[in-house]
Amino acid sequence: MTHVVIVGAYGSAGVAAAEGLLDAVGSEIDRLTLVDDGEPGGGLCILRGCMPSKEVLSAAEHRYRARHDHRLDGDPPEIDLDAVVRTKNEHVSNFAAHRREAVREMASRDGVEFRHETARFVGDRTLRVGEDEIEADHVVVATGSTTNVPDVSGLDSVDYLTSADVLDATDLPDSGVVMGFGYVGLELVPYLAEAGVDLTVVEHDERPLDEADPAFGDDVLSLYREEFGVEIRTETTEERVEKTHDGVRVHVDGPDGPDALDAESLFLFTGRRPALDGLGLEMAGIDPGEEGWVADTMRARGNDRVSVVGDANGKEPILHVAKEQGQVAADNILAAERGESPESYENVHHHVVFSGAAVYPYARVGHSEASAEEAGLDHVAVRREAARDGVFKTKLAPRGRATLVVGTDGTVLGYQGLHLHADVMAKTMQVVVERGMDVREVPDRAYHPTTPEILDGLLRLAAERVE
What we know:
Pyr_nuc-diS_OxRdtase, flavoprotein, FAD/NAD-bd_sf, FAD
């Protein structure tokens, strides 16, 4: 009698795994138990991640556009934080209710049960769920992620605002120091700036966007400094933090030596880590601190009957990746029941950061110039600046650039964009890269109709280069 338990059933990865197994219940699987203690339930992306962040970013986008449109007369409007949070909460509540209803609907089927309780391992594949112990044949861990708090001296003695705090804030400080300039910081810093917060950002590297070719990171620095008035200290590290009478002081060390940054508040945007505390993985013979502790099959090393998917495995904390990993875990559970070999998860690199108040999002699909070079691929790279294209000028969003990486045989290998609608174009380019399309055969208008020129130009130039 085969019993599968999914821990973290409200999240995107957990739901995807459940949906992948649902039709097998009653045949290859006898029982499917969905467990989640979320209150309210809905999953990280809906409650604290991409959905609420896009809600608040839309307010920043509207204000930014108003500030930069010379055709509009008068002072730009101020962001009404109460209205922003109220609207965000209403929409998120509806999204979360829809997710809970989807889980309840699955649990209404024969052989499927939902437990609104906490689960932890007490044995190899034994889980304590509430007051009960459940013996499972397969377990899927989809518990998401939590805020990563770095080990910086004094941090535990000061108050700080995380991304979740910012999303709920109806009152913001006049000034702030930002620790963390990854995708969370890149998205929330313009929102805070448009809301009137005077910001200083601490960036450890020479530029942000580690996955991007250098020109894109340099453009982001210029954009944030010039368009949003943000001070960014590059190649700088936090040494210690202390509380002051007026707020907080962050002691840093950078190219010009030690310095102290004073502000009313500290914003902590230092990423996320897998939410595994209290799960008791050690009882299942699993060590999350071990390198490569989750294989590409999504199975945990040390216990191949436990799969870890989504943010919980720390591989690639991206929504669409979580869904795909959940489906792979489901497929491999069914493969195990059939005596078949598991499949490994492979995906085309596809990341979008809603930088620049979502007016100038950064997107990368497939290879960058650097990664193509590192992979030893024979390729050409063509580049185009957004300022050359009339559509961006008419929309008063002329900043940014795009790059297309193409194999010398014509195969499209990758696209990068930091410009208006780069997020939308990335969806089309994902299909192009996944299918291994030839640059000379990409159909006309196979992309967002309001951004044709930049892609047209790249495709033409690349086609000429590979002829």
